[in-house]
Amino acid sequence: MSSQYSVVxxxxxxxxxxxxxxxxxxxxxIPPSEIIVVDDGSTDDTAAIASLxxxxxxxxRRSNGGPGDATTAGxxxxxxxxxxxxxxxxxxxxxxxxxxxxxxxxNPGITxxxxxxxxxxxxxxxxxxxxxxxxxSRTTMLIDMAAALSVGAVIDPPGGRGxxxxxxxxxxxxxxxxxxxxxxxxxxRIRPGSLSYGRDLQRDAGYLHxxxxxxxxxxxxxxxxxxxxxx
Length: 231
Hints:
The chain contains seven helices and nine strands. The protein is of the alpha/beta class. α6 packs parallel to α7.
């Protein structure tokens, strides 16, 4: 397995967190080939801060389209055999990529690896002091690049939540196996305004939307199978 990987970080008004997020990538025991920060129409200094950090960092500036659209834009210019993604307010622990590569090498039938993450509110909180949960999302994903490209665009649903839920569902529908490494290798920031902060009926509408999309795809597959059987 190749040890070369690209990292895509969609970022919107992340001036207070983007440097820390990038640093957590740069300090991996297996360093990235490239880090692509997609500034999604920020009105703060997100892009300027990312551009000043030394390292293999490319900053893309674009009009605001949502985290899924920004993730897609980054994936399309990434060049490595493996793809990792990270939300701009979250962090990786130093051995994340190393352990995920080991996990994928030991489980050749698995296309994408995810990890547990610790939820935190402030960077000053000591590691191990907060709740831990499995995170099937952008922040913990390491996936084969060819598979990621074959799944297609990350679509932003209404409300801005559920983009990765929909994308990972499509991964599974295409037959790709997703695996969870039962180790903590990321920290997920919980703060007002973040996608993971509490319940919001308007923003949570995205989850209902992606469920409807999944059911519609299932219906279409059933219709296609029935037609195939009758021919």
